[in-house]
Write a structure and sequence with these properties.
- This protein is 38% helix and 34% strand.
- The chain has two helices and seven strands; from the N terminus they run E-E-E-E-H-H-E-E-E.
- The strands form two sheets. It has a four-stranded antiparallel β-sheet with strand order 1-2-3-4, with no helix packed on it. Strands 5-6-7 form a three-stranded antiparallel β-sheet, with helices on one face.
- Strand 6 (124-133) and strand 7 form a beta hairpin.
């Protein structure tokens, strides 16, 4: 092409330019094999950054999943404990109470324990219901029952 007073003939490997009557040969610089595309160091850095971001994302996902599972476990334990407490309060005044098997069947893997403590000359009972799931205490609910007889 013609640029100002410079004339160049170019092909894929060389360029011959004529400027002010002098012919100058230029060889195109070819990139060495290490400069072609993305370098190994750049690739390793990119993979490391993606790995850190991926690890952070999956850690957050696992924490969220764990928190959700704990919340569901506590909610189920609360529903079970409240159902048992209602069952106990409907029963006649007694020294101990049984856990209704129909309620436990609704929540597989859960177990319940009912503790009864007499208070105020035996006219009031403190009822403590402890719910366990997979042999681990999840929730304790306390309530009172009075002897109305």
């Amino acid at each position: 092409g013609l640029v100002g007073s410079e004339m160049c003939i170019r092909d894929s490997r060389e360029a011959e330019c004529s400027q002010h009557g002098q012919t100058v040969m230029f060889k195109r610089l070819r990139r060495s094999a290490g400069q072609n595309g993305v370098s190994l160091i750049e690739t390793i850095v990119a993979v490391a950054i993606l790995g850190i971001i991926g690890t952070a994302f999956f850690s957050a996902l696992m924490i969220t999943t764990s928190a959700r599972a704990m919340s569901e476990e506590r909610t189920a334990a609360k529903i079970l404990a409240e159902g048992i407490m209602e069952h106990v309060k409907k029963q006649p005044y007694a020294a101990e109470y049984d856990v209704p098997s129909s309620l436990l069947a609704t929540f597989p893997g859960y177990a319940a324990d009912i503790a009864v403590a007499d208070e105020r000359n035996g006219s009031i009972q403190k009822i403590t219901i402890t719910i366990t799931h997979q042999n681990r205490a999840v929730l304790t609910l306390e309530g009172y029952k009075t002897d109305r007889s």
